[in-house]
Design a protein that fits this description.
The complex is a heterodimer of chains A (524) and B (205).
Chain A lengths: L4 H27 L16 E2 L10 E2 L3 E13 L7 E6 L8 E4 L3 E8 L16 E4 L19 E7 L6 E7 L5 H6 L3 E7 L1 H5 L8 E9 L21 E4 L2 E2 L1 E5 L3 E8 L6 E5 L5 E6 L2 E9 L1 E4 L4 E7 L8 E6 L13 E7 L20 H4 L7 E10 L2 E4 L4 H6 L14 E8 L6 E5 L4 E6 L14 E4 L3 E8 L4 E7 L2 H5 L3 E6 L14 E2 L7
Chain B lengths: L26 H29 L1 H23 L6 H20 L50 H19 L3 H27 L1
Helix pairs in contact in B: 1-2, 1-4, 3-4
Classes of the chains: A mainly beta (524), B mainly alpha (205).
The complex binds copper (II) ion.
Chain lengths: 524, 205
């Protein structure tokens, strides 16, 4: 051997360093990983009180417009008893405050990003873009993913509220981290009421109850546990209703209307009542159905809204009814994800008004009067995984950005009626597809009629495994709007593209009214 | 004179003749051992090339080129390498070890998704499309996911490969002329000490 002891020593030093440095990095990366909270630390289902989010009041009103201010800010919440969870909320609330507006009154909603400069666990800068889901907002107020507001900035969103009454929701839509921002708590209901709905004798007031259902997983230190399963989805072992794990609600012996919003990042549900009683679906995403549909169970994908009436009138006092979830396939289930919440029937006296469901609800909703024969053309959207990315027709939002926002999947002319055929040829994934701006009617699924609960106006459609769904819509409005999967992990990675409604004039660009830096100026 | 293949070189090596090429009865065996170790490293690189190719084609091509270079070196060492090539072989092997250390610690800024985003900032497989006026790239970094930049975690094959390369490096350094051996050794020592300082900083701060 020609190496001296000194040479060997020198080589040993460099060789040791070459082995030690990478190992150190690997070990420290593994030890910095979040530890999951043991399931024994989770609350038992139906031990926590049901609650509803507060209603947001406008800070100013004039003849035509209600003005709201919303501050996105961090908070600590005791979601799991005994643990503090850092969350982000609209006005520091999770879920955010409910907005209730009357049809025809305009809303201006100031959204101030007072979030920290970095996410406490995931380190990204939480820019935001607020989308009011269910509103035909102008492109610059639609929460376009690339029209972002950084921490320290704010934006005034303008909503026309001209559409039919419905349950909308406002949630974050910021590019690259929508899933994380929404999981942190940036989601809330927005209810638009119209005279037709007001005139119907359906449950109102305290008997008209928002149910914002989501799921989450927790780390041992109480913070949210983040695992997107190789960008396929985020699935929690805790089911939350209005931010409370498996709550229990006292109900009086009459009919209740529940506005169920699936605000989960990825999870889909199939609801049923353990009593075997049916539920009456009265409204879908875009408002009242033509006729109510009575079902034993129904499938509900992310971002869809279904309003159901449950009749506790014939149930004995003391009876507990559990809202269950028989999970659709390709969700990741845990011990108690088959339960959602419980209703305990109580003897309290109640108002007997508005305690029926009429046979006709909204028979003249324009979206529901459309037929395949009205369409001037048919377009196809192909949902597929390509090179490790989720795509629409092979396109991602990155492609849209790279095209300088010129790439579109469709460009109907204003007023055109079109059929869109949305195809998911995979057996391994389901995709709840959201088309912004429009209300549509589902024509068929794999050539068969839509499911009973889907027989209403929609803006999200569940495109299940190996399903091809045809929807028909009239394109009213102008400009560019997003189309995406509402599994927010798919959306972020990167199943999102856009379409453009063509018109000869007054077409505004989604990026034409950018955010402003704080401090606020009252110029609206 | 040094164009003669090493094993057949008969010039006697002494510590005082600083320019002399190391020779000795074990030199041929030493060269063959270095060749065998290079061959092992090459096989590891070949084995992992397909998965890297699937992820990002240039990375796969790079690994195949590296493996080809190491295989060529292995056969040259086995057959008796020209002494003039030993410094180049040392440089190549040391460079590969350095690249490995970088890829497993700070990440390599060559992947299309991380290029231009700085090191250690995440990026996954997006084009890293920046948003006009956006702060940072907006990409969440899941702790301990290994999605932190292009940094890979150390696996068994990595260890097999780097140990083989370090062994080959030691044997190759031993084949250098004494004066070169001393300066190369000192240079490696300096690099190694820097590495340990960094390790200490990371470990204890
Ligand atoms: Cu999807």
């Amino acid at each position: 051997m020609s190496l001296s002891r000194r040479d060997l020593m020198k080589l040993g030093v460099v060789g040791g360093a070459a082995l030690a440095l990478p190992l150190e990095r690997t070990v420290s990366a593994k030890s910095s990983a979040q530890g999951r909270l043991a399931s024994s630390r989770l609350p038992r289902p139906f031990t926590m009180q049901f609650r509803t989010p507060p209603v947001l009041r406008p800070y100013r009103t004039d003849a035509t417009t209600d003005f709201y201010k919303v501050y996105m800010k961090p908070l600590q919440a005791e979601v799991v008893p005994g643990l503090q969870t850092p969350l982000w909320g609209y006005n520091g609330l999770v879920p955010g405050p409910t907005v209730k507006v009357a049809q025809g009154r305009r809303t201006v909603m100031r959204q101030v990003n007072n979030l920290p400069g970095k996410h406490p666990v995931l380190s990204y800068t939480p820019w935001t873009s607020v989308h009011l889901h269910g509103s035909p907002s102008l492109p610059q107020y639609d929460g376009y993913a690339s029209d972002i507001t950084n921490p320290g900035q704010y934006k005034d969103y303008v909503y026309p509220n001209t559409q039919t009454g419905r349950t909308l929701w406002y949630h974050d839509h910021g590019l690259h981290h929508t899933a994380e921002n929404v999981l942190m708590g940036l989601a809330a209901q927005y209810q638009l009421v119209d005279p037709l709905e007001q005139a119907l004798p359906i449950p109102k007031g305290e008997f008209d109850v928002p149910l914002l259902v989501s799921d989450a997983m927790f780390a041992s230190d109480g913070s949210l546990y983040f695992d997107n399963h190789s960008e396929s989805g985020m699935f929690g072992d805790v089911v939350l209703v209005n931010g409370v794990p498996w709550p229990v609600m006292k109900v009086k012996r009459r009919k209740y209307r529940f506005r169920i919003l699936n605000a989960s990042i990825s999870r889909s549900y199939q609801w049923s009542l353990d009593s075997g009683d049916p539920m009456t679906v009265i409204a879908t995403d875009a408002g009242l159905m033509p006729q109510p549909q009575t079902v034993q169970r129904f499938r509900h994908g992310a971002a869809e809204r279904y309003e159901v009436v449950i009749d506790f009138g014939k149930m004995p006092v003391g009876r507990r009814v559990v809202l269950r979830n028989t999970s659709p396939k390709n969700n990741i289930d845990y011990a108690n994800t088959n339960k959602v919440m419980a209703f305990d029937v109580v003897a309290d006296d109640f108002d007997r008004a508005n305690n029926t469901v009429p046979d006709a609800l909204n028979p003249t909703n324009p979206a529901m009067l459309l037929t395949a024969a009205d369409a001037v053309r048919t377009r196809r959207l192909d949902l597929k995984r390509k090179h490790g990315m989720w795509t629409i027709n092979g396109h991602t939002w990155d492609d849209v950005v790279k095209s300088k926002f010129s790439l579109v999947e469709a460009s109907p002319r204003e007023g055109d009626v079109e059929i869109w055929e949305i195809r998911n040829s995979s057996g391994g994934w389901f995709h709840p597809v959201h088309i912004h701006l429009i209300d549509f009617r589902i024509l068929d699924r794999n050539g068969k009629p839509p499911m009973p609960h889907e027989l209403g106006p929609k803006d999200v459609v569940y495109v299940g495994e190996n399903e091809t769904v045809r929807v028909v819509a009239r394109f009213e409005g102008r400009g560019k709007y997003m189309i995406h999967c509402h599994n927010l992990v798919h959306e972020d990675h990167d199943m999102m593209s856009q379409f453009e409604v063509l018109a000869d004039h007054d077409v505004s660009d989604p990026m034409s009214d950018p955010c402003k830096s704080l401090p606020e100026i009252d110029d609206v | 004179m040094s164009t003669t293949a090493l094993p057949s070189s008969s010039s006697p090596g002494t510590d005082t003749a600083a320019d002399a090429v190391s020779t000795g009865p074990g030199l041929a065996a030493q060269a063959r051992a270095a060749g065998a170790l290079s061959c092992i490293a090459a096989l590891v690189h070949l084995a992992v090339a397909p998965e890297h190719f699937a992820e990002w084609a240039p990375a796969g091509v790079f690994l195949i080129v590296v493996a080809a270079g190491q295989l060529w070196l292995a056969q040259a060492l086995w057959r008796g390498l020209s002494a003039r090539l030993v410094p180049a072989a040392v440089l190549l092997t040391a460079g590969l070890v350095g690249l490995y250390v970088a890829s497993r610690t700070i990440g390599l800024p060559v992947h299309p998704d991380t290029a231009g985003q700085g090191l250690g900032l995440g990026g996954s497989h997006h084009g890293g499309s920046q948003v006009p006026g956006g702060h940072g790239n907006g990409m969440p970094i899941v702790p301990g996911s290994g999605a932190e930049a292009a940094v890979e975690t150390v696996g068994t094959l990595d260890l097999v490969c780097v140990v083989a390369e370090l062994g080959a490096l030691a044997l190759l350094v031993g084949m250098l002329p004494v004066r070169q051996r001393r300066s190369v050794g000192n240079l490696l020592l300096a690099v190694g000490l820097c590495g340990w300082v960094v390790w200490g900083l990371v470990r204890f701060t």
